[in-house]
Amino acid sequence: MANTTESSNPNLSNDEWCTEINNGAAFGLKIKKKLATKQSDFQLVEIYETEEFGNLMMLDGCTMVSTRENFLYHEMMSHPALFTHKNPKNVVIIGGGDCGTLKEVLRHPNVETVHQIDIDKVVTEMSELYFPELCESNDDPRAIIKFDDGIKFMAEAKDNSIDIIIVDSTDPVGPGEGLFNHAFYRNCLRALRSDGIFVQQSESPLLHLPLLKEMRDAMLDVGFSDLQHVNFPQMIYPSGWWSSTLAKKSGAFEEFRKEDADKAALQWQLNYYNSDIHVGATALPNFLKRAFV
Amino acid sequence: MANTTESSNPNLSNDEWCTEINNGAAFGLKIKKKLATKQSDFQLVEIYETEEFGNLMMLDGCTMVSTRENFLYHEMMSHPALFTHKNPKNVVIIGGGDCGTLKEVLRHPNVETVHQIDIDKVVTEMSELYFPELCESNDDPRAIIKFDDGIKFMAEAKDNSIDIIIVDSTDPVGPGEGLFNHAFYRNCLRALRSDGIFVQQSESPLLHLPLLKEMRDAMLDVGFSDLQHVNFPQMIYPSGWWSSTLAKKSGAFEEFRKEDADKAALQWQLNYYNSDIHVGATALPNFLKRAFV
């Protein structure tokens, strides 16, 4: 707060701030100018240049991606699962249209194919223009980028054909709604190989605990054998504290490939993830321990 | 974002929101009504009832404490240091006028005295009225609550007389300014016993890295022998991601009292802290590892 504190209750007027309101809390970034707007078939996609955070993508009025701090989300949606699986070869990303998760997954040399299935082509087009650093692996021959319905894709996926499924979606309203229910989870479970891992962004532990518990219950209901909660900071999402939930098709979460993780963290010059962060992110605060019983 | 998302760029009008702006980012809580305002000799103290976060204290326009999520800050400013020290008997809190850190420190049965030195009596008076749950240990006979200048208090403190000093202050502007410099650190070092630990809130790793590095350099300059960085979520502070820095008078940070920590986490029904959280909070993201070299 050192340098830029202003008086109490500043007025965040419409043309200077991009603000998202959630659960009685507001988060906004100060903008220099709007760079692009497009109403796609699915949502309103807006791109702004901010004062301090590089570019910002908003989807239907929700802050989605900023240049400065997206590394937290993208590293933490990918590497914990990929370093937990012994040998992930075939990965599917549902959503993820900004291509940041895809880029992180493609860093893994054992990965042979990554399908990215986002319903909205406009998100990827905008990302290529305004977040080119997230799209720099889009031409990797292992990447198969499709613009299609992720629910349909998983319903049609072959049994026992995928090692890791990452649901990198918007919230359970609008286009992302069908990615948070029993029918979808059942298809994901069926399509995973026996040592497969399902990953879903699972909202704010502080603000969205009922939803988080509902997701966990649904995953266990359809037959996932074990869950692992992963915490990480994410400044532009409500509360600044976000999570993913990992679910195993069979067996329990035990060790991860610690040495590989640390070698990779150095070699790939990751900004956040390393093996200590992996262990730390899976530590459960007491209020979550009590809630997850 | 599920239930309360509004359209892009809502106007956060003055009378409905308490908002703090920092580094081109704004965070606000929706308020029901203002409960109290007082201009003290040092700062403007305001109390609001919020829609979703209980009561909120603002100091000079900065969000300081909310009922719903202050547990994160207060547990993490106290327990990591107190469970690292082998037998903390004499603790000093500089600042901390809301008494939340004091309450956590007083949970420790080995603690014999806790001096709380906050310059502003109004903060504590307001906390007693509007955050009574933070003040419920103020009458503990081990607590010595003084309203005085923390810089002077530390300048006058006896050599080798304190086990843990916790600087639970506002930011390095206004009343908190003199708590972030060599002269103050030198007095803290001198007043600590040889196995003593100094703790300071050290701002957002994401937003305030230059300041964080400056603080660390100053601590090492005056002769602290080892530092430990501690991360935790703190929704109402800029970026939602906050930190404390621990500094040892001699020796290096090694083990902490893990078993005691886990027993206490259960017995005291802590909401966040336990031994896994302790380990996780001290894990350094790669960008901090690189910055702290």
The termini of chain A sit apart by: 38 Å
CATH topology of the largest domain in chain A, what is it called?
Rossmann fold
CATH architecture of the largest domain in chain A: 3-Layer(aba) Sandwich
CATH homology superfamily of the largest domain in chain A: Vaccinia Virus protein VP39
* Average pLDDT level of chain A: 93
The percentage helix of chain A is 25-40%
State the secondary-structure class of chain A.
alpha/beta
Describe the strand arrangement of the main beta sheet of chain A, using strand numbers.
8-7-6-9-10-12-11
- Which residues of chain A form runs of ≥5 with pLDDT under 50? 1-9
Descriptive notes:
The structure is a homodimer of 293-residue chains. With 293 residues, chain A is of the alpha/beta class. Chain A has two domains: 50 residues, Spermidine synthase, tetramerisation domain (Spermidine Synthase, Chain: A, domain 2), CATH 2.30.140.10; 222 residues, Rossmann fold (3-Layer(aba) Sandwich). Helices cover 29% and strands 30% of the residues of chain A. The first copy, chain A, is built from nine helices and twelve strands. In chain A, the strands form two sheets. In chain A, strands 8-7-6-9-10-12-11 form a seven-stranded mixed sheet, sandwiched between helices. Chain A has a five-stranded antiparallel sheet with strand order 1-2-3-4-5, with helices on one face. In chain A, helix 1 runs parallel beside helix 2, helix 4 packs across helix 5 and helix 5 packs across helix 6. The longest helix of chain A is centred in the N-terminal third of the chain and has 15 residues. Chain A is globular, with a radius of gyration of 19 Å. The relative contact order of chain A is 0.14. The N terminus of chain A is likely disordered. Strand 2 of chain A pairs antiparallel with strand 2 of chain B.
